[in-house]
């Protein structure tokens, strides 16, 4: 046919091979689901090319388990309901259920699963002997009298091809892993990715001898993430010799992430104590890891005069792209005309500096000149930095910088942080600031358009209001899709809130905001009757959530506040009532416990179609009062939620 003439070419005329490649390139789940609705051919093609799947819903409704995703290689079973309970215990013959899962997903090589007891892994791992990547999830306590490492033995028994193991969200003791690793030398040798970070500040990290025994058995590790003990007052702390031996044990590492246990929490650091790590030893470690691409050393204890060691990163680790340093002092002097210290790492694309007490504006500007490829930058707890220095930094990196986090910096409140980001205002995509409003009145406010900002993260102290956010310069964000709000503080030290609402209604100025993470897990107060003159958590919860009924949110993750004295973290009546009035909400995930009759309030929301209660904090309670949600109450709530009498508009 001649060029320029019309044709009757239809989408169905595209060769199946090309169409299949097009489908394979699309990874966003909702987009793929929309594509599958076009026609039957596209439905079959989408199902046959899907590689990753997260299974939700109740494990009791086995007849609803899809059997058309036979090409899926990555399967996530960790969100099945009732959440947190043994996956296979709902059936009299759990082996049949495990076999049915294998029949539905025969190609699985990557698995995420909640493992409440060893039986789950014993049955599932034997169904997929070709598993290569496994992530285990468990927030509940260990089973009584369980032998050391018993949870992991079935996995190593049945999966000889295992190359990646992630137990970062798996509640276990640090003593569980080393003996299992040592007992299976062939699997240990084949491991290339090991994540043993612990997301709980109350859990001790791995001792020096434990970390070295693990790495000695895994010489081919490419990625290692571990929570360690850096405090020199503790037995088994990480020392110079530990780091040197680790580098010798695993010379092929491309990612090394070592963090102190408290680095996962929001506890303000102690800047007095020093770590037992010298800059000379660091230089030797870097020279032994030439393949490093990402390095995290968050030790929560001072490591002094580190600029000579960091200069070696540029020559000894030429492929380094991401660097995160916690409590490293003297990372860049910023006084010489040529760059020094970390400023010599010219290939860096991501840099995070935490609790560096001697980082000045001059040093920051020197880093911006040396690390001219930075697209992501985080600065936390650096109290010598000012708005002027940050403005110069972002101005020098205005062509590349799109992701910025500024937190716990004394001279950078909300307004000054936003003013310092003015050079990249029209480019930035992801942003975190602290909502410190102390000097917002009287300061010049730049009410301008943040056209590309899609993700916003905020930290705010308990008792403060969210309303000033739009006045600080963030009133016009047309592309904002997701917001995370972390509230922290002790309500027991606070008077009754002086305003009726925290200020969630002020978020209605963001027209495309559909997802929110409201994290009140750092809020402590009185769950039961408060003493005279104090306010209990139910009233604080009303204060935090008032106004959410006016939002246009589709998805909400809500971490409830806690009473540490009675070990209670639960949903109260005001929250249940307010969440039931959020008319656009489709997905709700409550991270805490709740009473059944309060959960039933949520059924009054006609748009809700996915609700889950997750006790995902260490350790999740096993002995709560009988009025809180159990398997039976979860099942009754889910049955009511999915009842045919509820019409959920799509």
SSE layout and pairings?
Blueprint lengths: L15 H10 L3 H8 L3 H10 L2 E3 L19 E3 L17 H11 L5 E5 L3 H10 L5 E6 L14 H6 L5 E7 L6 H7 L1 H6 L2 E4 L11 H10 L5 E6 L11 H10 L5 E6 L18 H9 L6 E10 L3 H10 L5 E7 L21 E5 L6 H10 L5 E5 L6 H10 L6 E5 L6 H7 L9 E5 L20 E7 L20 E9 L24 E10 L12 H9 L9 E5 L13 H8 L6 E5 L4 H4 L10 E5 L16 H11 L9
Parallel strand pairs: 1-2, 2-3, 3-4, 4-5, 5-6, 6-7, 7-8, 8-9, 9-10, 10-11, 11-12, 12-13, 13-14, 14-15, 15-16, 16-17, 17-18, 18-19, 19-20
Question: Quick gist of this model?
Answer:
The protein has 650 residues and is α/β, with parallel strands linked by helices. Helix content is 26%, strand content 18%. It has helices spanning 16-25, 29-36, 40-49, 94-104, 118-127, 153-158, 177-183, 185-190, 208-217, 240-249, 279-287, 307-316, 361-370, 387-396, 414-420, 537-545, 573-580, 596-599, 631-641; strands at 52-54, 74-76, 110-114, 133-138, 164-170, 193-196, 223-228, 255-260, 294-303, 322-328, 350-354, 376-380, 403-407, 430-434, 455-461, 482-490, 515-524, 555-559, 587-591, 610-614.
Would you kindly provide a written description of the structure presented here, covering whatever features stand out?
- With 650 residues, the protein is an alpha/beta fold.
- Among the domains are: 37 residues, Monooxygenase (Up-down Bundle); 138 residues, Leucine-rich repeat, LRR (right-handed beta-alpha superhelix) (Alpha-Beta Horseshoe).
- It contains 19 helices and 20 strands.
- It has a 20-stranded parallel β-sheet.
- Helix 18 links the parallel strand 19 and strand 20.
- Helix 9 runs parallel beside helix 10.
- The radius of gyration is 26 Å and the shape is globular.
């Amino acid at each position: 046919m001649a060029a320029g003439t019309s044709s009757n070419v239809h989408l169905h005329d595209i060769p199946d091979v090309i169409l299949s490649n097009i489908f394979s390139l699309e990874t966003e789940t909702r987009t793929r689901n929309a594509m599958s609705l076009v026609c039957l051919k596209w439905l079959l093609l989408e199902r046959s090319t899907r590689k990753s799947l997260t299974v939700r819903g109740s494990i009791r409704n086995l007849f609803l388990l899809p059997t058309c995703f036979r090409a899926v290689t990555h399967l996530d079973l960790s969100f099945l309901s009732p959440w947190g309970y043994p996956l296979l215990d709902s059936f009299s013959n759990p082996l049949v259920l495990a076999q049915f899962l294998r029949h539905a997903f025969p190609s699985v090589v990557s698995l995420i699963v909640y493992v409440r007891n060893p039986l789950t892994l014993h049955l599932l791992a034997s169904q997929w002997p070709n598993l290569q990547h496994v992530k285990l999830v468990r927030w509940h306590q260990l089973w009584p009298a369980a032998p050391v490492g018993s949870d992991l033995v079935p996995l190593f028994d049945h999966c000889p091809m295992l190359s990646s193991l992630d137990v970062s969200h798996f509640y276990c003791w640090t003593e569980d892993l080393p003996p299992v690793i040592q007992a299976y030398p062939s699997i240990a040798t084949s491991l290339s990715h090991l994540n043993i970070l612990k997301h709980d500040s109350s859990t001790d990290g791995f001792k020096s001898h434990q970390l070295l025994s693990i790495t000695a058995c895994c010489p081919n590790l490419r990625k290692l993430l571990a929570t360690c003990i850096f405090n020199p007052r503790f037995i088994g702390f990480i020392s110079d010799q530990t780091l040197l031996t680790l580098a010798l044990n695993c010379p092929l590492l491309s990612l090394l992430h070592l963090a102190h246990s408290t680095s996962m929490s929001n506890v303000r650091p102690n800047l007095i104590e020093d770590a037992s790590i010298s800059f000379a030893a660091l230089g030797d470690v870097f020279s032994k890891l030439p393949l490093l691409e990402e390095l995290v050393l968050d030790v929560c204890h001072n490591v002094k005069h580190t600029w000579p060691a960091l200069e070696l990163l540029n020559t000894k680790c030429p492929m380094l792209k991401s660097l995160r340093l916690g409590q490293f002092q003297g990372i860049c002097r910023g006084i010489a005309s040529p760059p020094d210290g970390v400023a010599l790492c010219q290939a860096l694309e991501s840099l995070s500096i935490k609790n560096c007490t001697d980082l000045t504006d001059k040093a920051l500007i020197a880093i911006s000149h040396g690390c001219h490829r930075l697209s992501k930058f985080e600065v936390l707890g650096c109290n010598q930095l000012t708005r002027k220095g940050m403005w110069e930094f972002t101005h020098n990196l205005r062509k590349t910088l799109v992701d910025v986090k500024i937190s716990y910096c004394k001279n950078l409140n909300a307004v000054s942080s936003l003013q310092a980001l003015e050079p990249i205002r029209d480019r930035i995509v992801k942003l975190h600031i602290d909502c410190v409003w102390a000097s917002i009145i009287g300061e010049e406010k730049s009410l301008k358009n943040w056209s590309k900002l899609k993700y916003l993260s905020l930290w705010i102290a308990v008792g403060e209001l969210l309303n000033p956010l739009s006045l600080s310069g963030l009133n016009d964000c047309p592309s904002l899709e997701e917001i995370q709000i972390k509230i922290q503080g002790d309500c027991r030290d606070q008077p009754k809130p002086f305003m009726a609402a925290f200020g969630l209604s002020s978020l209605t100025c963001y027209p495309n905001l559909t997802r929110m993470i409201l994290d009140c897990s750092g809020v402590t107060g009185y769950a039961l009757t408060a003493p005279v003159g104090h306010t209990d958590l139910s009233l604080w919860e009303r204060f935090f959530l008032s106004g959410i009924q006016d939002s246009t949110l589709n998805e909400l993750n809500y971490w409830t506040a806690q009473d540490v004295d009675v070990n209670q973290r639960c949903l109260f009546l005001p929250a249940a009532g307010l969440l039931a009035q959020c008319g656009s909400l489709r997905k709700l995930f409550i991270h805490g416990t709740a009473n059944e009759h309060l959960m039933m309030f949520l059924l009054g929301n006609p748009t809700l179609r996915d609700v889950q209660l997750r006790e995902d904090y260490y350790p999740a309670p096993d002995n709560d009062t009988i009025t809180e949600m159990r398997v039976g109450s979860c099942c009754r709530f889910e049955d009511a939620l999915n009842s045919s009498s509820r019409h959920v508009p799509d």
